[in-house]
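hey can u check if this looks right to u? its 322 residues, i copy pasted from the old doc so theres a chance i mangled smth
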Amino acid sequence: MSDSDVTRVARRVMEPVLRHQRKGQRTGSCALTPCPACRDAHLVRVERCIAAGEPVRFVLPAFPGKSPNTAKVLGVLPDMAEKLALEFLSGLTERIRQVYAPGAEILICSDGRVFSDAVGIPDEHITAYQREMQTLIDALPQPSGIGLFNLEDMPELAGLPHDRMREILSERYAEPLEQLRKRVRAGEEAPLYRAITRFLFEDGNTPEYTGSRSALQRDARARAYVVIQRSKAWGDLLADRFPGAVRLSIHPQACGADKLGIHLVQTPDNWLTPWHSVALDTGDGGHVLIKRSEAEERGAELVRIAGRPSHYVLSAPAATAA
């Protein structure tokens, strides 16, 4: 295959990915369709895989664990929201396989263990979530191209206490918190900081919380720095371990950034994820992610599968009398 053919195929491989791009603030033509910077920022890695006749490799830090706030989610375990996201990713690898026979591999790098202590999710809940995620992945039509990688899959960390795993990750890769605070105050990653703070505040603002809103806000701001610090450390570890992979993200990314933001399921905004929401069957063949409380406020009915809460469905509107 010539160099020009490799580039042509690489661009076709990226087309279905860019179709679901989770964009940051954009202006001009890039607000509607990927500009050359968006389209070509990751092309070199894709071209290398194609030139070698290998599957195109993607890494996606995501699926950490369910929010601890039951006003947002149905419980501890993955449900229809995660299932829909995994089916989307599996479908994405299939669409890539149609234009490039070796296809693609998407490695989900679950980051729940990385910052579970900072987001208030017990480690045993992370373990249960990861096991069910693997069950859902195994149930996908094969070959799905979807894999799962966790902090404890690092051979040098196997068998260590979870707190020690996080300590070693921070020792090797974490940016000093004060340096991160200075960058955020200077405007760098400020949207991410605000979004993480909002999520942490919402997750902590449960019926069981008895403190003041201002105290919870201060706590959320402090923990947001830790979450970002550890997330970046996890990203740097993944870059070292999987240097040839295209890096995906569930957060909006700037035009031409080294990570590509991607939507997993339709959402009402640019930030909501399956682990902070529930799936709502809209009754027209589609699903959207919303918070559990919003689904219930809209009168949606809870659906159970095999006895477990799965998702909500909007009831058909009652017929009006003639």
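The first strand starts at residue 56 and ends at 62.
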